Amino acid sequence: MINVVLITNVLNKEVWLQAATRILARQLVRLRQQITNLQGSRAQIRGVATHTQALYASTSISTGMKGATKAMVAMNKQMAPAKQVKVIKEFQKQSAQLDMTIEMMSESIDETLDKDEAEEETEELTNQVLDEIGVDIASQLSSAPKGRIASINTENVAPRPAESQDVEDLEKRLASLRRI
């Protein structure tokens, strides 16, 4: 009898354990389903939050564009682009006219001043240089040789007593002019 009671108790415990196991398994399945549902809900909430942030950014951009548009309208009213174009064209026209006037005046002044002064100044400068080196151009041109002048080596030439100083000065000047 005790065996029967023990067997019944063991069987009852098995039945009870099976029932408890089923309940726990069902709870585990429901818990897993709830976790899956919770993760799906979390993803949806994140999507909604991202969408909300995008809408907020879009609203901010719209507000900024609205302000910029108002500023541009005010600027266009103040500046009147058609008037500005007209003013710029008139400025270009007047500037071109002024340039032509200045050029004409410069040319006429240059023509007036350059006619006699340049020729006289050139002649005076030439005469002054020739006087400094002691050359009378009119008297010496006819006796000047027509060929090419050979270079003279001044180191090998013996100095002449009467003309030595004058000749040396002239040769030095001539040498410096040739270097130039």
Automatic annotation (TrEMBL):
<protein>
    <submittedName>
        <fullName>Vacuolar protein sorting-associated protein 2 like 2</fullName>
    </submittedName>
</protein>
<dbReference type="Pfam" id="PF03357">
    <property type="entry name" value="Snf7"/>
</dbReference>
<dbReference type="InterPro" id="IPR005024">
    <property type="entry name" value="Snf7_fam"/>
</dbReference>
<dbReference type="GO" id="GO:0007034">
    <property type="term" value="P:vacuolar transport"/>
</dbReference>
